[in-house]
Amino acid sequence: MKLLIFQNYPCEDAALAGAAFEEYGMDIEVIDCYHSKRPPDAEGDALLVLGGPMNVYEEGKYAFLKWETEWIRDWAEDGRPMLGLCLGAQLLSKAAGGKVTQNPAREIGHFEVCLTKAGLEDPLFMGIRNPIPVVQWHQDTFSIPPGGILLATSETCKNQAFRIYRAIGLQFHLEINREKMAAWIHEYVNDSDKHGIDTTGILDDFAGKEIIYDNVCRTMIRNFIRYEVTSSTKSTPPFAASIPMSGFMD
Fold first, then answer.
1. Active-site hit among 12, 68, 175, 228
2. Of 67, 80, 141, 236, which one is least surrounded by beta carbons within 10 A?
3. 172, 84 Cβ separation under 8 angstroms
4. Does 173 participate in catalysis according to the annotation?
5. Which of 33, 86, 157, 217 is catalytic?
6. Residue 196 has what pLDDT?
7. What is the pLDDT of residues 55-72, one digit of tens each?
8. Architecture category of domain 2-229 in CATH
9. How many Cβ atoms sit within 10 Å of the Cβ of residue 203?
10. Contact 169/151 with Cβ under 8 angstroms?
11. Contact 160, 128 (CB under 8 A)
12. Per-residue pLDDT tens for 95-125?
């Protein structure tokens, strides 16, 4: 089975998420959206849309956002599996009729998000501890589009995860480890300095969290493949027997 990855900025690749998809048998094709002037001629069984420093409403500056939003709308409305991370989740919300606005507080670093009742019942989060430890780097937030279901929330950003059709948007970064965060800090250092972010502290705190983040990522990707990619509907029991169930988090 094949996974399409929409990469929206050079330094923001799939990292841990990409490695997990490959580990569980998915072939991967990366689409360089940032440098693309038109939609790609590509097909796949699932779509992963990554983050980026731009905002969804900056189509005048980043022309690819227009075709990408339309692609995501068509993909989701067709009932095809999609996972959007940060900007990817915001694009999904916009494509489905939601709004993306500035969040009251910027989130950069280590946080926790809490599953809603719907989130606790959603197969994406099977075996995941609650609240979920996550990495964040964003200033905008999305609304839950018409027909969407809120799956996770937090005090500093109400809408942290949602589902619509077979598409799921996560405001937090599932794919990040210390090495990738260090690269982002190097790339966005002015951004960090401007808002007084303790970049040294953020990197130091990975020492006790990196294994947890890796387990969360691998478990969610495994769930996504089992319950979305290899099942005909969300409610269909998984048939991907080759993907082991061992190692789920408590």
1. 175
2. 236
3. no
4. yes
5. 86
6. 79
7. 999 999 999 999 999 999
8. 3-Layer(aba) Sandwich (3.40)
9. 15
10. no
11. no
12. 999 999 999 999 999 999 999 999 999 999 9
